[in-house]
Design goal:
With 474 residues, the protein is of the alpha/beta class. Helix content is 41%, strand content 14%. It is built from 19 helices and 18 strands. The strands form 6 sheets. It has a 7-stranded mixed β-sheet with strand order 14-15-13-12-16-17-18. Strands 3-11-10 form a 3-stranded mixed β-sheet. A hairpin with a 4-residue loop joins strand 7 and strand 8. Helix 2 crosses helix 4, helix 13 crosses helix 15 and helix 15 crosses helix 16.
Length: 474
């Protein structure tokens, strides 16, 4: 697999809030398609786009985009959960959708949309999730792919369709719903005028991968034995999950706020989102102001030289969700929780606290997931860019007592590519996809070390979580 281009997906701030720079991203995609046509003699068969799952765009009757799509971190959703609970109980919504409660859920975003002054919902004819929106601009067709729909908190897993009663309860017009298609389906042929403009060959189609990037990332995990699959998709978010065949919707899974969402080829994810590398990314953004050449590899190296277990944080404490200065927020958190205080400019010390705390949180979440599902696993697969962080990988093995298998730093891209091949008929099953990936990409294994020391510190972490339980957003 060869990368043609890598580019930032940073959002922009406008009078409307935090938005995706959608048209710039679309131009970058089409520029790369043009580049392919110029540089490669082989005809292009298909394209597909996956990205974050809960964000969407609204189209009017003429197919015009009604404003740029909001980014899920836009503060407009801050108090929407209170609005939700006044209209329908969490138990009822979870019974219908199986989806966890987080402030950025599509349901919350649409309620915020309904309450703003723009009245876009009144003018909207179609809702397309972000991946579907790119496919629409490439093909002119309107569908929504299942994995994106399944995490919206607007999909009823029992009826396997949009939940009209939820739309009605929150005064969201169900007329914006488009038909649901599955990963591996042809979304549509690229528009003839686009093929001519980009000098592409005829016959190029958009084949939809799981448009939710985390769902796409799970598809190619190179596990080929018969055991249960446990994984961490490690990126801006850490998506902690088990692969399941049918939803697990119980009082226990609701209590732990565990989500059931779709992937591809009949599989589901039993998942919990926690704050992942967003925290260290935001720290680096501040540290770069005085150290502009600071790399993540240097941060990891500094952390590995630090004294272990000087302090700990709950990565899901609300103060870290959108803190303007994350190192300072951590310094304040440590002071308020009575721990040794690390100065905000102590790069290695702060990073070590983050990495150890993420590993502790992984164990905490997996313990609840195993309890709710009845599953037991022998190993944990880490995929995504966070797999490059060897410190977190080893810490995860140490605290869970299980071996950790790391592969596929670009798992969502590999999953997308494999679903293109599935849609084209080159591979015929999920098992075949995983066997191909297993033969094609290397894995690195981390064995547990010092588990007794980590067990003792984990007890202290549990006490910290309990003391600040009301502050966690997950």
């Amino acid at each position: 697999m060869t990368d043609i281009d890598c580019f930032s997906t940073q959002s922009i701030r406008s009078a409307r809030g935090l938005e995706w720079d959608f048209y710039t991203l679309l131009d970058r995609i089409t520029d790369n398609l043009h580049h392919y046509a110029q540089e490669h003699e082989a005809p292009l068969d298909s394209v597909g786009v996956e990205c974050c799952g809960v964000d969407y765009g609204l189209l009017d009757a003429g197919g015009k985009l009604l404003g740029l799509p909001h980014n899920y971190r836009d503060p407009r959703t801050r108090n929407m959960d209170c609005v939700v609970s006044k209209t329908m109980t969490h138990e009822e919504i979870y019974r219908r959708t199986g989806i966890h409660f987080m402030r950025h859920n599509t349901l919350n975003q649409l309620i915020a949309e309904r309450e703003c002054d723009e009245k876009l919902l009144e003018r909207a004819q179609s809702l397309l999730f972000l991946g579907d929106l790119f496919h629409y601009f490439l093909t002119g067709e309107r569908h929504v792919e299942y994995s994106g729909v399944s995490i919206s908190q607007l999909y009823n897993y029992l009826t396997r369709d949009w939940d009209g009663e939820i739309f009605d309860a929150f005064s969201i017009p169900s007329t914006i719903c488009e038909g649901i298609i599955n990963a591996g389906d042809v979304y549509g042929p690229l528009k003839p005028e686009l093929l001519r403009k980009l000098h592409l060959n005829d016959g190029v189609v958009a084949i939809t991968p799981p448009t939710h990037d985390s769902a796409s990332a799970v598809v190619p995990i190179p596990k080929v034995d018969d055991g249960d699959l446990a994984y961490i998709s490690s990126g801006t978010w850490s998506i902690i999950g088990l692969e399941i065949d049918r939803p697990i919707v119980t009082a226990e899974s609701l209590q732990f706020n565990i989500s059931n969402s779709g992937t591809a080829l009949g599989k589901l994810m039993f998942t919990k989102n926690i704050m992942g590398l967003w925290i260290i990314q935001q720290c680096r953004r501040i540290w770069e102001q005085t150290k502009p050449d600071l790399t993540f590899a240097e941060i990891v190296a500094l952390a590995e030289r630090e004294t272990p277990f000087r302090a700990m944080i709950d990565p899901d404490d609300a103060v870290f969700f959108d803190a303007p200065n994350t190192p300072k927020a951590i310094e304040t958190y440590l002071r308020e929780t009575g721990q040794p205080v690390l100065a905000a400019q102590n790069i290695g010390g702060i990073a070590r606290v983050i990495f150890e705390s993420l590993a502790f949180k992984y164990r905490y979440i997996f313990s609840h997931m195993f309890q709710a599902s009845g599953k037991r696993v022998r190993e944990i697969h880490i995929i995504g860019g966070g797999g490059n962080n060897e410190a977190i990988n080893q810490f995860t093995a140490n605290v869970t007592g299980m071996r950790v298998v790391v592969s596929l730093p670009k798992a969502s891209a590999v999953g997308n590519a494999m679903m293109q091949l599935y849609g084209l008929g080159a591979v015929g099953s999920l098992q075949e996809i995983r066997e191909v990936v297993h033969r094609s990409f290397p894995c690195k294994v981390y064995q547990p070390r010092d588990t007794d020391v980590w067990d003792k510190r984990y007890t202290e972490f549990l006490a910290l979580l309990q003391a600040r339980a009301s502050c966690s957003f997950s």
